[in-house]
Amino acid sequence: MSRNHVSATVNGDQVEFLCETGQTLLEALRDELRLTGTKEGCGTGDCGACSVIVDGRLVCACLMLAVEAEGKAIQTIEGMATGETLHPLQRKFIEHAALQCGICTPGILIAARSLLERNPNPTEDEVRYWLAGNLCRCTGYHKIVDAVLDAAREMRGG
Amino acid sequence: MRYEAPKTLEQAIALLSGANGQARVLAGGTDVLIQLRSGRADPQLLVDIKAIPEMRAVVADSGGYRIGAAVTCMELIENEVFARDWPGVVDGVKLIGSVQVKGRATLGGNLCNASPAADGVPALIAAGALVCIAGPLGRREAPVEDFVLGPGRTSLGNGELVAAIQLPRRAPHSGDAYLRFTPRTEMDIAVVGAAVYLTLDGKGVCRSARVGLGAVAARALLVPAAAAALIGTTVDEAALERLAAAASAACRPIDDKRGTKQFRVKVAGVMARRAAAIAIERARRQG
């Protein structure tokens, strides 16, 4: 079977890989590029654990074929911190204890960043609706929402 | 399985026609990928239509809109001009999965997946939208209510694909709305969906109406009897009662884990009535 050659950028770095047509972007990120921060939860687009940003658009990496990534700019959790400096969202998640097992956390951080890029001053309702596609089975969302709102406040300079 | 991303509609049709029914069109992929994963679909060829420019565009066309089959739900939601003209269509599109899913999923795909509960479809039926189909024999158009034949089945022939969905010019003093019943507000599948598009005259009398229902039959329905209950009235309490009764009477639902037949029949009337109330409010506001 012939494999597809894909070149894309991931967190600003040029990458190339080979993939089967049926392979998802999630599988390519984890298995070909060894970027395992993006998690597989359900594999059917229901849980959001595999959230990544593709050409500025928040998507589930399990619902996109790797071959569709040709020429795209992909952002994953590995690109969120700057060196040793955490993104404000990451820092606020720790401060607010907005995680327990951590499987949903990379997807929620990516989704929250995508929200704050569009809307730097969301209401609590807007945060909850935007994150409706990210399931957490540990903490119960309150601390997650608090952390996102607090990060938004800090990022606005307040 | 082979992957092709043709740059023209003609190339896509040639690929589909040459595949002996062993090809699948890939737009957003939010349904196709799940079918591939579960083994429900096992095509030899995937034809990705996202590299075809006309499939990616929302074009204002003779007062209406032509929505390319590969336009994502998020692109449509963010299109403020479109959302002002067809807020009911956008009501439905907003309910198609999470932000992540809407970042990939398309209205064309929601239609072609042919789920009776598709949130994007009832408002298209109410709006009088047409499906623009392209194939080896040329182009044709079909009303949305005739396009889906049953669960997972459409009227697409071999080598045909949906190129776009055509919304007509919105009439003056008109409004549309879509509502669904679900236990949760987000990330759920419609138990019942109802859409209403109505037009008022200068005196506030309803001059035309269309009602679409979802998840109450094997496919989304156009319900002329429900529309007739509104036409010629000021959409008063009595008219809304008749609308609800006619909507309930048109239901041919199944019992399943999301709702019983009896519940769906009752709630279809309630949803139609509430959707009509929103549509009339929008008609009055939009002028």
How many H/I helical runs of chain A?
5
In whole angstroms, the N-to-C terminal distance of chain B is: 52 Å
**Biggest sheet record of chain B:** 5 strands, antiparallel
Structure class of chain B = alpha+beta
Question: Could you walk me through the main structural features you see in this protein, from its secondary elements to its overall organization?
Answer:
The complex is a heterodimer of chains A (158) and B (287). In chain A, 32% of the residues lie in helices and 16% in strands. Chain A has two domains: 4-79, Ubiquitin-like (UB roll), CATH 3.10.20; 88-155, Orthogonal Bundle (DNA polymerase, domain 1), CATH 1.10.150.120. The model of chain A has no long low-confidence stretch (mean pLDDT 96). A five-stranded mixed beta sheet of chain A has the order 2-1-5-3-4, sandwiched between helices. The radius of gyration of chain A is 16 Å and the shape is globular. In chain A, strand 1 and strand 2 form a beta hairpin. With 158 residues, chain A is of the alpha+beta class. Chain A has helices at residues 25-32, 88-95, 105-118, 124-130, 142-155, and strands at 4-10, 13-19, 51-54, 57-60, 73-75. In chain A, helix 2 (88-95) crosses helix 5 (142-155). Chain B has 287 residues and is of the alpha+beta class. Chain B folds into two domains: 2-115 and 130-167, 2-Layer Sandwich (Uridine Diphospho-n-acetylenolpyruvylglucosamine Reductase, domain 3); 174-286, 2-Layer Sandwich (Enolase-like, domain 1), CATH 3.30.390. Helix content of chain B is 35%, strand content 25%. Chain B contains twelve helices and 14 strands. Chain B has helices spanning 9-17, 32-38, 73-77, 80-85, 87-94, 99-102, 107-112, 121-127, 144-147, 224-228, 237-250, 261-286, and strands at residues 2-4, 23-26, 45-48, 58-61, 64-68, 130-135, 138-143, 148-150, 153-154, 161-167, 174-181, 192-200, 206-214, 221-222. A five-stranded antiparallel beta sheet of chain B has the order 4-5-10-6-7. In chain B, strands 11-12-13-14 form a four-stranded antiparallel beta sheet. A three-stranded parallel beta sheet of chain B has the order 1-3-2, covered by helices on one side. The mean pLDDT of chain B is 96. Chains A and B meet through strand 4 of A and helix 2 and helix 6 of B.
